[in-house]
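If you are new to this repository, start here. Below is one unmodified record pulled from the training split, so you can see the exact layout before writing a loader.
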Amino acid sequence: MPTTGILFDMDGVLIDSEPVICAAAIRALAEFGVTARPEDFLPFVGAGEDRFVGGVAELHGKVFVPAMKHRTYHWYLQLLPAQGRPFPGVHERLEELRRRGLRLAIASSADRIKVEANLHTTGLPPAWFGAVLTGDDVTRKKPEPDIYLAAARALGLAPAACCVVEDAVNGVLAAKRAGMRCVAVATSFPAAALTAAGADAVRPTLAEVTPADLGA
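And here is the target side for that same chain:
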């Protein structure tokens, strides 16, 4: 079945924000007595901030409390305007896909407050997307397939007609469990790790992803 819908993860795909959320979480967790390192967060990338922050807290022997995430977002919203930026070529690539008649959606495990801040920072028009789903819209986060299946339903498409663009191992696993093609960008993880997770193709960034990669 040819691809007619493209489902984008947000962080690490459309916007170079993974270092920003990591810095924010380190600052927030320090307020709770946790001395976190950037590498502590890698297993939890793409799984939503409850796991991203909570997993590292537990790794250091602390019980996760919602205030840890709230403080992470406090710092994230302060750091994002200066440090966050869309990846080069993102606007042009999405414009090309829209000209081809493909339907676009965002499906991010992050909470809506973060997704909306990211969209504002990228300057991508919300009207370009037929659906914007966030971690607030599903109970089970990536690597479970729920958010990608929900995005396909929101576009009125079968899962097999959708291709996911991801940067995280958890996201690739979610896409494949949803029965979708998945193109990964190696902005957060090595290409070998993304391939091992099941990615159908791996490119350096979204700018290098071609319609053929997407199955369109």
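Two things worth knowing about this chain: The beta strands are 5-8, 103-107, 131-133, 162-166, 181-185, 201-203. The longest strand covers residues 103-107.
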